[in-house]
Amino acid sequence: MLGLLADGAGGAARTELVEALGVPDGQAGAAARELLGAMGAMRGLDRALGLWTRRTLELREAWAAGLPAGAHGVLTADPVADKAALDAWAAERTGGLIERMPVALYEDTDLVLASALALRTRWLRPFTERATEPEAGPWFGRTLLGLHRRTEVLDRIGVADTRWGHVTELKVLGDNAVDVHLLLGEERMTAGQVLAAGVDVLARRCPVLPGPALPYGEAGPGLRVVKELSTRPLPPSLDVRTVAFGVTAEHDLLARPELFGLGAAMLDHTPGPFPGISGDPLFVGSARQSAMARFFAHGFEAAAVTAFGMPGGAMPRLRWATTVVEAVYDRPFGFLALHRHSRLVLAAGWVTDPQPYPEYAEECP
Q1: CATH code of domain 122-245+315-363
Q2: Which of 42, 148, 155, 191 is deepest in the core (most CB within 10 A)?
Q3: Distance from C-alpha of 210 to C-alpha of 160, rounded to nearest angstrom
Q4: Residue 185 has what DSSP assignment?
Q5: Does domain 2-119+249-310 have CATH number 3.30.497.10?
């Protein structure tokens, strides 16, 4: 959406948007359309772009031609009716994961540009649910819906040496080339540092020590390698314990306009920041996003809608030893949902309030 706005912007607004996007001037619109096309080819991912304008607003032909077919709707100048129609669009395009369009509508709203994304994947190997009680940290004293899995594929785990500190990265593979990477940093690291470190890991900008090469003992955040006795010879294994979670968020993009290149786009003046969209003056009066994600025993789903409003048994004999890599995610951690082939991050978030175990849900605040 920022690319499409840059394609129709002029002056300082165009400069700021192009700089925020990091693409050469004149290529933002093409890059946006290329991204939409690439996402449309991904299994498990639904995406849509919508544009609504008041009937009397004339769009520049060249800019409108770059929108997907059937994306253009009409605003009636009745905020209640228009909001109901936009909410229905958001719910339909995300399969009900996002129920409302995150935009304020007024009688002088001339244009709304919105995008929707819905992502679903099922794990190649599901987790087993069980109650878990963290022994320390911010989740101490809570009974949570824990997820457990044991595998002989040790390279699903690794420890990255990043510019902010060490991060344990667990890859959970989906059945449609969408994977979720769980990121546990050192306790002193902030959420922003852990997620930025995760992006560096995915971009292969920092070294990662894979599971098979981890040393015995405390090998990384939430990670240790031990020897276990068993009744028969067993290969090394990876024992993962994490928690189920569901997160939602509402973002006001205009609270950090410089991050998105929207500073000059907010200025109401003539001829307006977007002469390439319409001959009528337009400026960004609202820019918000609603997002959600859910990680559970059998899979993962996430969605986001972003909208810009423009006004105007017995003990056995233990004779063999085997190596076990134990990964425990029992304090706040980050996640990145990644398309395996394109390396495109489709969703990201930070888990602070995991799902309680059902029997204890009513006792949790």
Answers
A1: 2.30.39.10
A2: 42
A3: 9
A4: E
A5: yes
